[in-house]
Design brief:
Structural class: alpha/beta
Distance between the termini: 82 Å
Strand content: 5-15%
Shape: globular
Oligomer: single chain
Number of helices: 30
Radius of gyration: 26 Å
């Protein structure tokens, strides 16, 4: 096809879309179902209505093809586990008795059975449920969900493309099931899995699918020759099936690299590639392999993960180059729009001139449609849109919000000495132990306590003017008193104030720093029914006044036990925000670190002896390609040390990380120079403790013994067993006892019981160590 005819064929599509609805209707319906207030049928009706509304909106916006199958009650990887029949043995009876209840049991666990492990979806803040596989796994096709949702869209008269997690990515994301040899490689099950995918594809074709998208984001990571050979074999086998739809293999989040020629040569009809950020290298790589003659290319030129308006002229230039490399070029976002909020037009508290800079899912859809129109019909047909876009980009670049000379001068003055403690860990640990006087196996929590309905109502009342600031603060003081009292009675050693005043661990700080914008409706799914509102890091960062000192000091006044100061670290402040894209991340991180450093120093000056700087996103933000990691880890660990480097030797610095794979960053964790680290470990059965030991990690650590993302209350003996497993890797004098993560999302009854059992477990194991 000529370049002219390829342009004329250009159409608009997306890989996926936010699931929750404009007012998070899905979250409310699911949580109502869990509590018995919403029936299964009512939940299904709500879900069907949300899917219909989304497809009709996308079609009305001008998309030529809508995705199906990307909708999920909890997680699309868990949906794939159901689709291929890889239900863990402990969940099979529940799934057979009630498929929906069993599905949620896999996601959340029950009092009787543990859930699947949960971890981050590549380098995003979305969490997926990790498949559990072993040599005895038997796959069975169950395409009911995928077929039903396709039929729903077709019944509306829409052109629909089912989206599935591809077989290679599914197996590469999986782990050996409990009790299976930890060296088992799930990818060895590929030959068993491919016939199941073949059956699903045949079912979708019979239901009316012309195209099916198979997502293979795992192929943008560094892959061994054996893994690339498996990908070649998988798409050779699927591509030569006699009974299948046309196949579109999609990758995103980075460049395909060595996997690109494998997929370009595969007998499939199309590829979908990311052309944003570091993945822009896909353009040159695609030309180097000879393009995709005779095939469809879906070009992800609109950033699917950030919220800034697209540079339309820049994207059109990239699309123009791509026209000569494929028979047909369609326009899309770089990834599913699951990772951005729904509609910027809902934001009423952001100044109109700044709102012009932002593009959420609905605005990105319009950008995609505009680009497809310009590509197919010529730029004259979108002249007004191009002019408005140029003005928006110029407005942002010239805004004083984006450039504060004082902040930049301070960041430029940072020296290596600012990122070092005054004494090395081995010399300061004695001073900390003498100051704190803690027992063996000290107990603590990660920071937050349950955010009750009363607390949320108090914040809503304050916003609505139904109570004044004094009334609200009295409510916060009462909650802190109750949290401190409970911890003292339970027997915890290092206490927290519970964070009742905080809406979110990032947003709370963002609202108190210059350069950040907060949204009211910018909800993004983190996992299951957990949605967050990532703030927008729009300009240079500074701290006008202390942010946490007042409430931490008040909590300390209520007890003789140490109360931790609680902060969110600079990397997580970036990772869980929509970060600015007009300067290097290292510059932004340094600005945030300097603001947090002021807070740490003020906490110490107020008498706080323990300060926790949480960095759960350190691993999450790790680049997907190994070659890019050293530079990232250098600035990320420097930012943490800049935050904490100004304290005295006897002030104990903690950090916390959760729900990610830590084995490949243990050296960086050591480089943070924190005195104590707490990590998620309950679902992974103390794997991280073994990884720390293998590295020779020399500091104190608290691998979690209580999985807070499940409603289960672990028994004291269960927690003690995990603690004993931790002691096999970490000496008792360096081992802490704590939950996996904060308790914000849990209810008070389960929190009380679980923490009481945690303290009992610590006392039991202390007794065993002392021989009492």
């Amino acid at each position: 096809m000529t370049t002219k005819s390829a342009a004329a064929a250009a159409r608009a599509t997306v890989y996926g879309y936010p699931r929750q609805g404009r007012n998070r209707e899905l979250k409310k319906a699911i949580e109502g179902y869990w509590k018995g207030r919403v029936t299964a049928d009512a939940l299904r009706d709500t879900a069907a209505g949300l899917r219909r509304d989304t497809w009709e909106q996308l079609a009305a916006a001008g998309l030529h093809e809508v995705p199906t199958g990307d909708f999920s009650y909890y997680d699309h990887v868990l949906d794939t586990t159901v689709m291929v029949g890889a239900i863990p043995a402990r969940h099979r009876a529940a799934v057979e008795e009630d498929a929906l209840a069993g599905y949620f049991a896999m996601a959340r666990g029950t009092q009787e059975v543990a859930p699947l492990e949960m971890t981050k979806w590549f380098d995003t803040n979305y969490h997926y449920l990790v498949p559990e596989l072993g040599p005895d796994t038997v796959f069975r096709a169950d395409s009911a969900k995928q077929v039903a949702e396709l039929k729903e869209a077709l019944a509306l008269g829409l052109t629909a493309r089912p989206v599935l997690v591809g077989p290679i990515t599914y197996l590469l994301l999986a782990k050996p099931a409990p009790g299976v040899d930890p060296d088992f490689v799930p990818l060895t099950l590929l030959d068993r899995l491919l016939p199941v995918y073949a059956e699903v594809l045949a079912d979708l074709r019979a239901a009316g699918a012309e195209w099916v998208q198979l997502d293979e984001p795992a192929l943008v990571q560094d892959r061994t020759p054996a893994e690339l050979n498996a990908a070649e074999r998988a798409y050779r086998d699927l591509g030569t099936l006699p009974d299948r739809p046309q196949l579109l293999v999609a990758s995103y989040f980075d460049r395909l690299g060595e996997a690109l020629p494998v997929l370009a040569k595969a007998p499939v009809e199309g590829l979908a590639l990311d052309f944003t950020g570091s993945a822009a290298a896909n353009l040159g790589d695609l030309a180097a392999v000879g393009g995709l003659p005779g095939k469809r290319l879906v070009a992800g030129v609109v950033d699917g993960r950030n919220i800034w308006v697209n540079d339309l002229e820049k994207s059109l230039a990239a699309l123009g180059t791509l026209l000569g490399l494929a028979e047909r070029v369609d326009v899309s976002a770089s990834s599913s729009l699951l990772h951005v909020p729904l509609d910027a037009a809902m934001e009423r508290d952001i100044a109109p001139q700044i709102l012009r800079w932002l593009a959420f899912a609905q605005q990105k859809t319009r950008e995609i449609v505009t680009l497809a129109k310009g590509l197919a019909q010529g730029t004259d047909t979108i002249a007004a849109e191009l002019a408005a876009n140029r003005a928006d980009l110029a407005s942002r670049a010239a805004s004083p919000i984006t450039h504060d000379p004082a902040v930049r001068a301070r960041a430029a003055a940072v020296t290596a000495a600012d990122t070092r403690r005054s004494l090395p860990y081995a010399e300061r640990t004695g001073a900390q132990r003498a100051r704190l006087g803690l027992p063996l196996l000290p107990t603590t929590t990660i920071g937050s306590f349950p955010q009750t309905g009363d607390l949320r109502a108090a914040r809503a009342d304050l916003r609505a003017g139904r109570i004044d600031t004094a009334g609200y603060e009295e409510r916060i003081r009462t909650e802190i008193q109750q949290v401190i009292s409970f911890q003292e009675k339970t027997g915890l050693d290092v206490l927290v104030h519970g964070e009742p005043e905080r809406n979110d661990m990032v947003q709370y700080f963002a609202e108190r720093l210059t350069g950040y914008l907060a949204t009211q409706h910018g909800w993004v799914q983190s996992y299951g029914t957990r949605y967050v509102r990532p703030p927008v890091l729009a300009g240079d960062i500074s701290r006008p006044e202390p942010m946490t000192v007042r409430w931490t000091t008040y909590a300390q006044s209520l007890t003789d036990r140490p109360v931790k100061g609680m902060l969110t670290g600079p990397v997580t402040m970036l990772a869980w925000s929509f970060v600015r894209d007009d300067q290097p991340l290292t510059d932004t991180a340094r600005q945030v670190a300097l603001a947090l450093r002021e807070e740490v120093n003020d906490l110490e000056a107020a008498g706080t002896s323990v300060v926790q700087v949480d960095e759960p996103a350190l691993r999450e933000t790790l680049p997907l390609r190994a070659a890019d990691r050293p530079a990232y880890l250098e600035w990320a660990t420097e930012a943490f040390r800049l935050t904490t480097g100004g304290v005295r030797p006897d002030t104990q610095i903690h950090t916390h990380m959760c729900y990610a794979e830590f084995g490949d960053i243990v050296r960086a964790i050591d480089d943070l120079d924190a005195d104590v680290i707490s990590l998620e470990a309950a679902r992974s059965h103390m794997q991280v403790a073994r990884e720390l030991a293998a590295h020779g990690y020399p500091r104190e650590a608290g691998p979690g013994v209580y999985d807070i993302h499940s409603p289960r209350v672990p028994s004291a003996e269960e927690a003690a067993e995990l603690l004993r497993a931790g002691l096999e890797a970490i000496p008792a004098e360096r081992l802490w006892v704590n939950p996996d993560c904060g308790l914000k999302t849990r209810g008070w009854p389960e929190t009380r019981a679980s923490l009481e059992n945690l303290v009992t477990a610590a006392r039991t194991v202390r007794g065993e160590l002392s021989g009492c």
